[in-house]
Specification:
Layout (H helix, E strand, L loop, with lengths): L1 H38 L13 H9 L4 H13 L1 H23 L5 H30 L4 H8 L1
Length: 150
């Protein structure tokens, strides 16, 4: 009789230790998640970020040192009007594409024309942005050029 009580007592101790360990683990996880949600500021999603040409340049400038970032922003300011004009044309073309998709009855040729317009206008916008970066990169330090790749 003494043997069974001792064996049962040992197994219940291990069960108690295991249960205590699991509870401590869960409390630690809840504490870590609560701390993280309190102290970490959420990053904006792609839908929440501004989609202007200036915002795109700023996202590139964040990777650079202060001097190189200023060179990039200066190059942008000289061509800002053209870049924003190209971006607005792209936004209008995308809206026409959405309209073509919503049109009832569906017109395949209208959609094809809208897709071709978006492709053309996007190319113009991308070339404009690339020219801005190209003019700034020529003045940047080696470290700045390398940082753009990262």
């Amino acid at each position: 009789m003494m043997m069974t009580i001792a064996a049962r007592d040992v197994s219940s101790r291990w069960l108690l230790i295991g249960s205590l360990g699991m509870n401590l683990f869960l409390v630690g996880m809840i504490g870590a998640l609560a701390t993280r949600s309190y102290f970490v500021t959420p990053r904006p999603t792609a839908a929440e970020r501004p989609h202007t040409a200036a915002a795109r340049i700023d996202r590139l400038a964040v990777k650079l040192g202060p001097a190189d970032a200023e060179k990039l922003r200066t190059a942008f300011r000289t061509r800002e009007a053209e870049a924003e004009r190209a971006r607005k044309a792209l936004v209008r073309a995308v809206e026409r594409l959405k309209t073509a998709l919503r049109t009832q009855p569906f017109d395949k040729q209208q959609l094809r024309a809208a897709i071709a317009e978006v492709r053309t206008v996007r190319t113009v916008y991308e070339q404009e942005m690339q020219e801005i970066v190209l003019s700034a990169v020529a003045m940047m330090s080696h470290e700045g050029r390398v940082a753009l790749v990262k």
